[in-house]
Please model this.
Amino acid sequence: MTQPITQPMTTGQSAPVRTVGPDHVARRLPGPLTALRWEVRKLRAQYRARAVLLVAVLAPVAIVVVIHGQSRPPKDTLFGRFAIDNGFALSLLVLGFASQWVLPLLTAIVAGDVFASEDQHGTWKTVLTRSTSRSRLFWAKTITAGAFATLVLVLLAVSTIASSWMIVGHQPLIGLSGQTIPAGTALQLVAASWAMMLPPMLAFTCLAILLSVWSRNPAVGIAAPVVLAMVMQLVGALGGVEAIRPFLVTTSFEAWHGLLTEPRFSGPLIEGLLVSGGWCVASLATAFVLLRRRDITGG
Amino acid sequence: MNDILAVDAQGVTKTYGSLRAVDDISVRVAAGEVYGVLGPNGAGKTTFLRMLFGLIRPDAGTIRVFGKTWEDSGVRVLDGVAGFIESPRFYPYLTGRQNLEGLALLDGGTPTGLLEEVLDVVEMSERADQKVGGYSYGMRQRLGVAASLLREPRLLVLDEPANGLDPAGIRDMRALVKRLAGRGLTVLLSSHDMEEVEEICDNVTIMTRGTVAFHGTIAQLRTMAPDPGHVLATTDDVRALKLAENRFAITVARDPGAALIVTGPPTEVSSYVGSLVSADIGLLALTPTRTPLEALFFMLTDDPTHQSLDRPAQLQDTLR
Model:
């Protein structure tokens, strides 16, 4: 198939180079996972992504050390009363704080950038003139952003729980109904509570993806989800908005409360799953249509 | 030679709001030829090439590439097609080699050793492991050519490939395109430089304001080109003008910058200059205004800043 084609650009030099002639046959299409491999490879090369992972591991340790070293506990926050002498309570305190805006920020740093950075670097025309379709690139980027969000949450959770356990201790936990939860069960419930952050976090990931596609601006893609999270928190705290409160993504961040009451209730968990899923589907469907229909004129 | 056209664009139109960026143009590029799309900035060349690559959807018309359309074949329409639009762009935080490896991945892989070979061709082997963020414009342009060759193309589409290159870079780029064409590759080249197209291309489409102003071979274009013009500076322009009155094969006129512009066949211009010397009129300068093809290009594209003083109206009628 191949034959010599040309020499180096500069005249007077030669090198054995090959390429195709007019009888070239159709090249093979890349497999479904090649675009995903490319996205992961790019992500691994970015300092920003590595920095986020590092923060997810180290920041909880620092926070645990600082709170544990305080003489007075932050009593006005959920589980704050027991935070300085109960590792499970401190894990849940960090969880409550993270769900305010930290989780939306950490996921948006990648998800809000993953599409817009192609505009920033002018590389849409580079990748879309290869043999991979827009649809494949869209799903590769979406899966990469979702996987990154999951990894960040896992690292944050493991680091928080482990450092709280080791530094503060693992005494039985006092639940939200005043019940005493044995250490073994408390560990499972704290881990489950962290796991329940995943659906709303993925919803914010998808929202960041939509903003990234729509705005074509990494700054908007990263900052806007954080601002939206704060606005949702504010709206959720207002009176007279009971009808819309369940549909806010941030409400899903509170679904874990049901695990720590006696008796436990799972309604908010199911509601949170449905709401987060709804936000994911709506955001991704809109982003997909926007990207498919878009004229690539820049770069 | 293959019977299927490399590019067969028919009635292609693209509108942005009230602006018709490309207005009902048709371009046919046979396999194996080097085809130029020429026009001033804003003529619609890049919009046309973006539509060919599927980056932009045309509002009307069809573009077939080796017989395939985007509607029928999706991304497979780009099988055997490579190139770049405007300046090639890469990921600045990756090295040149990593960029090429990634792009090869998106192509479904490349034969062993080809990556090194294309790096050799563009003489980037030694800089391939540096991050693209530190590359000069010319280096990125070379990497763009390497990325294109990596696809082992049958059709190479280059949008103003010499843009931003120094004279040596321009010479090397043109030499490379010629060598590629010599190996049977179809080359579709857009440019705003008549000299470049004249040097490289067999056929040309000249575009202006989204429409086709001329379509044909370079040889045809040459036959339509006006006589060459020269800027003439003498010690006595009044007498020089008077001496030209009886010479019907040439035109001598005073341009707004007060110099004389002499237009006519080279032999007649030479004879006229000789008569000036014989008449003891000092010759201070005789410089060509532009090549005949350049003059024709400016006429066709109707660029008011490049209007020729000796623009023949009948030529315009012939061309249109």
In short: The radius of gyration of chain B is 23 Å. Chain B touches chain A through 63 residues (CB under 8 Å). The longest strand of chain B covers residues 19-29.
